[in-house]
UniProtKB/TrEMBL annotation:
UniProt key word Ligase: yes
Protein name, entry field: Glutathione synthetase
Positions that bind ATP: 153, 320, 439, 465
Molecular functions (GO terms): ATP binding; glutathione binding; glutathione synthase activity; magnesium ion binding
Enzyme Commission identifier(s): 6.3.2.3
Keywords: ATP-binding, Glutathione biosynthesis, Ligase, Magnesium, Metal-binding, Nucleotide-binding
Named cofactor requirement(s): Mg(2+)
Organism: Caenorhabditis tropicalis
Amino acid sequence: MAQKDDRVLLLNAPRLPLEDAKLEELTGDLHDFAHANGLVMRLSTDKLSSEVCQTTPLTLLPSPFPKNVFDEAVHLQNLYASLYHYIAYDFDFLINIHKNVVKTDDFTRNMVDILKKVREQGLKQPITLAIQRSDYMCHKDQHSAEYGLKQIEINNIASSMGAHAQRLTEWHIRILRALEVPEDVIKRAIPENKPIPMIAEALFKAWSHFNNPSAWVLVVVENVNQNQIDQRHVEYELEKLGVPMVNIIRRTLTQCYEQLSLNDASDLMIDGRPVAIVYFRAGYSPDHYPSNKEWEARERMELSTAIKTPWIGLQVANTKKAQQVLSEDGVLERFIGKPREARDVRASFAGMWALENKDEVTSKVIQGARKHPDAFVLKPQTEGGAALHTGEEMVQMLRELAEEERGAYILMEKLRPMIIENYLVLAKKPITFAKAVSELGVYGYAFGAKDAPELKTAGHLLRTKPESTAMGGVAAGHAVVDTPFLYEFI
Ligand code: ADP
Ligand code: MG
C-alpha cells in the first residue's frame, strides 16, 4: 500500500493490487455493507431526498499511516480543545486579530459584530460546548525526509463525517479479515473509532445541564444537504441516551429567523418551549446567511441562554487568521500555561504568514511564494473546502490583491503528505487504484464554564484523495472517507 521509496515495511498488510475477481467480490460486499449500515449519502442529482441513496465515497481498504504520528494527533486533541475553549472567551484578542480581516470579509465582520454585542450584553449562558475535529497531514520534511504531524486546520463548527468514519472502520476490519490478515495484526493496526457516541455524549451533557425535560435540541441545517445521513446518526445516538425524539428539531437559519424568539429571561423560545442546545451543522459559510434575517437569527441565539455548539466566540476563534496569529512568537503560549503542552501544540503548526504587514519578513515570504508557488497555499477565511488558492492562480492573486484585501488571507506552507496507494470507491463509477494522500482528523470536545472545561477525545477520520488533487473535502467531491492502518517503522 505504501510506496517503496518511503522505506515502509507493512508487515502482514494485504498485497496490492488485488486480483480482479477478488476485487469485484469485495466491492460488491462493500456496497451491501454500506447500505445495511447507513454508510450512505444522498445522490448529487437529488440532494433533497433520502429515498434513494448511494454508498458514501470511500476507500476499499484502510490506508497506511505511521502509528507515532497518529498517536501524536490523539495526544494533541485535548490540548487543542482546551486551547480553543480559552481563546473563545478572549474578546479583545479575537476582535483585535480580525481588525484587518473585517475590512473586506463581510462574513467575518458579521461574526465579529455579534461577538461585540455578546461582549456588551454579557454571556447569558456561561456554559459552552466545542465539538471539534482537528485536521492534519502526515507531512514529509524536505530536509530530514522524516514524517511528522502538521495541522491543516481546526473545525469548531459542523465537524462532520464521524458517522461514516465509524462505520467504515467496521468495514475495514471486515475486509482485512476477508483477506486473511491475522486478528492480532488487525487489533494493533486498526484503532477503535467511535466519534458518534462521544459527540452524542457531549450534546447529552449539555441538554441535561439545561435541566428542562421539555427543552429543544435545535439542529441548524442547510436548505439542502447531500450528507444528511451523517448528521442523522448523531441524532439517533442522542435519542438512545435519553433525549426524546420529539425534542430534536432541524431548522435552517431562515426558519430560525421566522420561528425563534427571546423571552424576558433571554431564553430562546420556539413553540412555547426553550431551546437547550443549538447544534450548528450549518452556519459556517456565507451561503447559509443569504440575507440579514439569518444574521438576526444568529444574533438572537448568541444573546440567549441556549448552549451553542459552537458559540460565537468559538467560531470567531476558528478562522484561518486566528490559526496564523497563534503561530506567531509567544501567542499560543499566552493560552497554554504549561510549556511542555505549548511546545507539543506548536510542533504541529505548519509555517503560516500574514500578508498585510509591511515588514521585511512579509515581503520576503510573498516574494518567495511568487517564485516558488509549489511551496505555499493561499487561504481566505471561508470554511467548507471550497477556496484554496494554489500555483499560478495564487501567484496572480498575490500580485493583484489590493492593500485592504490582504488582511483577509493567510499564506501557508504547502504540506507534502505521505503518498499511499488504495482503491477509491465512488458509487456508479469504475473503482480506481490510485496514488493518494490522506488527511487525518481527530474528534474531541470541551464542555463547561470558562475556567473548568471537561475534555474528551474519541474517534478519527481519514480523508483520502488522489495525489494530484489540491483541495480536500468529501462533501465538496474532492476526497473520499478512509480510516488508518497503523504501522511502525522498523
Ligand atoms: P476548509 O475550511 O475549506 O476545509 P482547509 O484549510 O481544510 O479549509 O483546506 C481545504 C483543503 O485544502 C484541505 O482539506 C487540504 O486538502 C488542502 N490544504 C489546505 N491547507 C493545505 C496546506 N497547507 N498544504 C497542502 N494542502 C492543504
Ligand atoms: Mg478542512
